[in-house]
Amino acid sequence: MKIHWQMLVIILVATRTLAIVDLRRQKEVSTSSGRVPTDEVNLSRSQDNPMLFFEVTKPIKLPKEKPCSVQLLHHDFGYTYHKAPVLVEYRPPPNCQKNWTKVVMEWKATCKGRQYDRIAGVWLSGVEILRTCTAEPTAKGIEWIILKDITKYSSLLDKPQILEVKLNNVVDQTYTGVFHVNITFHFYGDNGKEGLDNPAHAHLILPISLPSSEIGGSWFQIENSSDVQSKSLQLPPNAYRAVLEIFVSFHSDDEFWYSNPPNVYIEENNLTGTAGNGPFREVVAFIDGVLVGAVWPFPVVYTGGINPLFWRPVTGIGSFDLPSYEIEVTPFLGKLLDGKEHTFGLGVTNALYVWFVDANLHLWLDDKSSSAIRGQLIGHEEPSLESSVVSNFKGLDGSFRTSANRRISSSGWVESSHGKLITHTSQEFKYDNLITFKSNADVQIVQQEIATNRKVIVESAKGIVLSSKVDTFFPLYMDAADVDGGNGTDMEIANVSNAFNKDVSIVAPTGSFFSSLNNTQNAGGYMITKNNLVQSGLGSTQEMYNYQSTEGCYSRAVSVSNYTFLSDSTDSFCGYTS
Ligand SMILES: *[C@@H]1O[C@H](CO)[C@@H](O)[C@H](O)[C@H]1NC(C)=O
Ligand SMILES: *[C@@H]1O[C@H](CO)[C@@H](O)[C@H](O)[C@H]1NC(C)=O
Ligand SMILES: *[C@@H]1O[C@H](CO)[C@@H](O)[C@H](O)[C@H]1NC(C)=O
Ligand SMILES: *[C@@H]1O[C@H](CO)[C@@H](O)[C@H](O)[C@H]1NC(C)=O
Ligand SMILES: *[C@@H]1O[C@H](CO)[C@@H](O)[C@H](O)[C@H]1NC(C)=O
Ligand SMILES: *[C@@H]1O[C@H](CO)[C@@H](O)[C@H](O)[C@H]1NC(C)=O
Ligand SMILES: *[C@@H]1O[C@H](CO)[C@@H](O)[C@H](O)[C@H]1NC(C)=O
Ligand SMILES: *[C@@H]1O[C@H](CO)[C@@H](O)[C@H](O)[C@H]1NC(C)=O
Ligand SMILES: *[C@@H]1O[C@H](CO)[C@@H](O)[C@H](O)[C@H]1NC(C)=O
Q1: Which of 49, 290, 338, 479 has CA 20 to 30 A from 526's CA?
Q2: Does the keyword Manganese belong to this entry (predicted)?
């Protein structure tokens, strides 16, 4: 038995040595860095120019004026493992106009040689602004650019900060790829507009993460289910709205958490080196030990995941800019405005080594209130997680159906110069996963669906002043078959279908907004590996990205096979024609 993709990509994350066993050959493999070598493709490509890798996303709407651009970082990430993060002083650029309305971060990187996919984080004084995965280089070299709208972090950009970048890489005789990374901030002004006073952006953002001096980076590294890591914060007494933004990525034993079988299967088959705990995971957020919210994450497949040939040059959904998740925690302000310290904790249900999790607390402050802001939590319900597993297996073959549900709801009022506002929030989650093993577990099929619904309703004495709803739906299908490739080689044939669907609707007396995103990738192909290096193979990927909103539309359809574009079309047309 061999669950191959679980061994193909291990993102090197920490100091511990992992000994992963190829179960079919019962032979331990390790590299000079003490880990399983992965997926670099030893395919010579004919093109001479570096290939441009990209993730399909909608373009950022930019003001017409030229930006004022400041390059903050130019660094070569060679052997960075066990080394402190790169720290750079950030100062609001004095010669850029102060009233910017849009700030875009540009991450530009090149790499040549053979290398794993690596995880990286970018923080401003502990507030995370980007979680990203590096692309996997080829011998001829690759390049990629990530553009991210960071305007919502304006309150930080207005003051001096420490820019921190952590990217663990190992360079040796086999893994030769050094990542050359440049980070530039582009400030776009728009005279006469509200600039920093945009009500959508918090006035203060506090980090729930480790200090920038931490050698392993500012993210918390969650190692198991009981590992809750926290930070104590004292909130300013004039906060009237609070939102937690959570960043998460999963690695090593939990990189492919959605395909992990239950422990009973591992125990009965005497398997060693197979990651278990079943396929259900959730990030849980606590304030003073009380569960206030959860994130049931989108299963991002990194650029080396399942079959690295699927992700060239179109990378997996979310791989270059991992989604963050927002939880409205305004109802709890009544408990937090007492001037005392409160703990904000983060954990991962069923976690195996290792999850990188941290959060940003976005706060809106009232400058006008003459008396102190008061508030009270008036209701909070968090019935425990409902979950079930139905196992049906004999030896290595069989199936496991895992289901889970959760609901959290809270209400609280806050009285500020905006009046007395009651905020009601609800979070609902649904999970279903079916794992099937066939042919003595040489074939594994995973079918998973995660649906979440978040609602916020804000009421004043006069009635509802805001109503917002965010629905996400993440269906995932994956099958992989391992076949003997002959001559000491292994062949993996796999298909993946992954989709990120998100609908947002905001209704306020001043106007309403809605958006709908359907982003689907289908990939299929094979690869032949020898000693965990890819000898040959083929990957084909189709992606359909369809975004509609009251502020405009964007769609793109891309089809790539064997590194070659078969088709690529974009459209900014709203609505369907017949
Ligand atoms: C990569 O391919 C080249 C040319 O086919 C070969 O000489 C070399 O040994 C291969 N390297 C590895 C590590 O397989
Ligand atoms: C920014 O805009 C405000 C009004 O919104 C104005 O008072 C201020 O002078 C502007 N600052 C600069 C540097 O343009
Ligand atoms: C990164 O910045 C350096 C210094 O400004 C420049 O020489 C280099 O060409 C840049 N690299 C890329 C990939 O743009
Ligand atoms: C979970 O992880 C924490 C943090 O590393 C560790 O202290 C604790 O012993 C672990 N618990 C279990 C049950 O392994
Ligand atoms: C697992 O190990 C136990 C004890 O050595 C043995 O009795 C059992 O047959 C083994 N099961 C399998 C499926 O190999
Ligand atoms: C195995 O290697 C031999 C000798 O190099 C070659 O003749 C044969 O075609 C190879 N078989 C496969 C299946 O690649
Ligand atoms: C994977 O998809 C290919 C066609 O794209 C199909 O021929 C193959 O049967 C699929 N594999 C499985 C295990 O379903
Ligand atoms: C996304 O899919 C849903 C359900 O299939 C559909 O109602 C919605 O209109 C789609 N949105 C877009 C932008 O295609
Ligand atoms: C992929 O393209 C290369 C040329 O770039 C070609 O040599 C190879 O045969 C193709 N592979 C498949 C499976 O079509």
Answers
A1: 49
A2: no
